[in-house]
C-alpha cells in the first residue's frame, strides 16, 4: 500500500518537474534559438596602428570622388537624437513602396536574396522609413511601444522591421529566415540593433526583427564581439587608427573643420556618428 502511494507521488513529481522544464523552455525559446546558433568567439582582430594621413575639410569630404559620404554609422537613441537639420537620403526599394536610406539598398537586396535562396522564405518589411510626423503620431498613440520623435532610427531610414509570412515579431525567430537573419545579417552589413544581451546599453528589449545597416566591416566587428552599436562607437577612441582585415577605421573629431583620413586608399566611406565625430572607413 505504502509502496503504491510512493509510486504515485513519484509520478506526480516527475510530471511537475517536466511541466516546469517545458514552461521555462517555452519562456526562453527565443534565446535558445539564438544561442544555439551563436558562437561569440571574436574571430576578427582590431589593432591600433599609425598611418600616413591626409587632411580634409568637411566640405571637401562631400565632393571628393573617392569618398562615399553617408549616414550609415549615425548613433540614434534617446540620448543622441536626430536634429532638425539632419537630411537623409531616402529612396524607394524596387518600386515596393518600402522606403529606406540609399546607402543600404544594395545590401538589403543581397540579404533578402540570400534569405530566399538559403531558406526558401521571402522577407517582407512591416516598418521602414518614417518621417518625424509619423513617429510623433506613433509615439502619441503608444508611448510604451514607440520611441520618442528624434530617437528612432526609422526616421533616418537606416533600419527595417522584417518578417516572413505568418511569422512576425518574436515568431520571426522561429523561422529559418529569422534564424538566418539573426546569425548571418552581419555578412551583409546589418546588425540586430537591439540584441538579447543589449538591454542595459540600448534600453530596448530584444527585437529579432529590427535590422540596422552599419556597413559590412562594422557589422562583423559588432557581431563577433557581441556589442551594441552604442558600445562599438564609444569603443573607437577618437583620432586613433585601427587596422581590421583590409580596412582602416578611424573615428575623427573635427578640428578647425577638418579631419584626418588615412592616405593612399582607393575608396573611403565617411559617416557622421551623431556624437560630434566622423567615422572613416578606408578600403583597398
Ligand atoms: Zn524597428
Structure characterization notes:
The protein has 284 residues and is an alpha+beta fold. Helices cover 33% and strands 21% of the residues. It has helices at residues 2-27, 29-37, 58-61, 105-119, 132-141, 176-184, 199-202, 216-224, 229-235, and strands spanning 46-49, 53-57, 67-69, 90-92, 99-101, 124-127, 159-163, 190-192, 210-213, 241-244, 247-252, 258-262, 267-272, 278-283. A 6-stranded mixed beta sheet has the order 1-10-11-14-13-3, with no helix packed on it. The chain has a 4-stranded antiparallel beta sheet with strand order 6-7-9-8. A two-stranded antiparallel sheet has the order 2-12. A hairpin with a 5-residue loop joins β13 (267-272) and β14 (278-283). α4 packs across α6. The radius of gyration is 22 Å and the shape is globular. Zinc ion binds next to β7.
